[in-house]
Amino acid sequence: QAHQAVVSTQSTGTATVIPTATAANHVEHVIQQRFDKRSENVRRVCEAEGSKAAKITKPAELIAEPSIGLLWCPTFKAGSSNWLDMFCEAKLNHPLYQDCDISKLRQDNPANKFKQEDTFNYNRKIKQELGIPFMTVRNPLARFISAYRDKWEWAASKSYYFDHSGEEMVKHYRSVGLHLTEEEKVNLLLAAADVIRHQTQKDLTKDEIVANPYLNPPGPTFQEFVKWTLDGGADPHFLPYYQSCAPCSIDYNILRLEKLYEESGYLFTIIERSYLNLDFRMSQNTQSKSDACLVNYYRTISKHDLQALYNLVFKVDCELYGYPCKEALRNILSQPKASHNIVKCH
To answer: What angle do CA 46, 49, 54 make, to 5 degrees?
Structure first.
């Protein structure tokens, strides 16, 4: 006879009973306790007076796959590639989903019909019809760095992101010298953009790169990226979790990227499936390398901008998901500001 695993919910204070054959296992019991603790913390933050998170009642996007019994809120730069592979794998025999990506999963998505529901029915019908809701989170400070490094830094093989927003960052926030006329600035930026789009910066000499301030470095620096964000720039790869997933309205099972290998295994046990081909260990290793660089990047930012960035992008998520961001920021602020703008990190 199957045991019963109980998952506490965030918004209603009730519990969802999930059958699993191995809930008595010690490791699974420990993971379930983590899920319960995270759920309780989210509920507490959501119920606090003046909660910003509670004002978001509809998720930006949900991906449902009833055949595997899961409902996913995509959180990019938090193991999303692995989950995308899993949901695409469930569609392999459907001709529409050849060369599957997130845009394909959005087509005929069963979760779309719930977007107009009121919060109560939305939550209740999700449990009844779409499967177990889950999301993956990551330290927000590390996620922001990861998004910058992967999509904008050095503009290497990322001309889409340079066209989409990187060029704007460089244009508005790079200091290029008072001796240049506006026409010269425009021409230099056009030349830099052409180099980046064709990925020919490797063919330039050092003197040619130095001669064009928009190529030194190519793509926005982290300081420019932060300035753009503080002035209202946004992208799904670092959009706060509470804005994209509405955690005060939906009772998610919350997995952490830092523990994704074992916690995803427990989730698969709950739905009685196995996805051994998904390499969640690689996600954890990549995350660890990025985290090691975290201080190096934030030390290039002024204390004023760092505090503003915390309030705008990190604060609510850190509180919801129990990350010690304040302590990390205190550690960063206790160190002298870096004297250079370009971070070397591998």
So the answer is: 35
Residues 6+ apart with CB under 8 A from 211: none
| Segment 172-181, tens digit of pLDDT | 999 998 889 9
212-215 CB contacts, 8 Å cutoff, 24+ apart: 212/188, 213/174, 213/175, 213/176, 213/177, 213/188, 214/170, 214/174, 214/176, 214/188, 214/189
pLDDT digit string, tens, across residues 184-209: 999 999 999 999 988 887 788 888 88
Cis preceding linkage at 217, omega within 30? yes
Give the Cα separation of 346 and 342 in Å (integer).
13
Token pair 């969802």 in the structure block, residue: 16
Q: Which residue has the tokens 């994704």?
A: 260
Please say whether the beta carbons of 27 and 44 come within 8 A.
no
d(CA 216, CA 208): 10
| Ranges of the chain whose pLDDT falls below 50 | 1-24
CB atoms under 10 Å from CB of 118, counted, come to: 9
Specify whether the CB–CB gap between 284 and 257 falls below 8 A.
yes
- Backbone φ and ψ of 91, nearest 5°: -105, 10
Locate 183 and state its tokens.
């026409």
| pTM given for the model | 0.86
Q: Tell how strand 3-8 and strand 132-137 pair up.
A: unpaired
Query: Could you tell me the sign of the dihedral formed by the alpha carbons of 29, 35, 38, 44, in that order?
Result: negative
24: three-class secondary structure by DSSP:
coil
| Structure letter (DSSP) for residue 203 | G
Q: What are phi and psi of 231, to 5 degrees?
A: -90, 10
Q: Please give the helix or strand (H or E) that residue 5 lies within, else none.
A: strand 3-8
DSSP state for residue 336 in the 8-state scheme: P
